[in-house]
Write a sequence for this structure.
């Protein structure tokens, strides 16, 4: 049995693993490199950038991240890549079905690792995005759908503001 690991130690371990991936560690040397297999299953070539970003995104369970946050995580792990590369990779992951894009405004977009049907709370001023189970929301009626169109989904973002106490 393994001893419990603190969140700080877990982050340090992941940073070390990511640096090894970045330095082209052979796949046989690292059983935790299943990010490559996941990318291949979704039709994506597992480049170093994609593998590293997939590990950052998916190693901690379901998350909501912006491109800037993910870029900062890569930089803290001493994995050099441009913000444009992060955006492009997130868009490729979204197109492949690995992520869901949640547009909050013209300048704020989150990427959600939970691709199941659900909705979100957005806390203004904190850039916090939290899941709402789909069964907790009841949409009574949709507007008339224009001809030659069909509903592909309904995404609800409930915007919250902290009250002063």
């Amino acid at each position: 049995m393994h001893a419990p690991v603190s969140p700080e130690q877990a982050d340090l371990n992941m940073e070390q693993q990511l640096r090894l991936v970045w330095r082209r560690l052979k796949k046989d040397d690292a059983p935790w490199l299943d990010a490559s297999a996941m990318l291949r299953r979704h039709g994506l070539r597992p480049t170093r950038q994609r593998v590293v970003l997939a590990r950052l995104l998916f190693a901690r369970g379901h998350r909501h991240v912006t491109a800037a946050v993910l870029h900062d995580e890569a930089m803290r792990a001493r994995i050099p890549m441009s913000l444009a590369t992060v955006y492009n990779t997130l868009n490729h992951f979204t197109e492949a079905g690995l992520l869901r894009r949640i547009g909050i405004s013209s300048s704020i977009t989150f990427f959600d690792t939970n691709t199941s049907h659900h909705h979100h709370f957005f806390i203004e001023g904190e850039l916090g995005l939290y899941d709402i189970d789909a069964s907790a929301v009841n949409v009574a009626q949709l507007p008339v759908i224009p001809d030659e169109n069909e509903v592909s989904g309904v995404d609800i973002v409930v915007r919250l503001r902290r009250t002063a106490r």
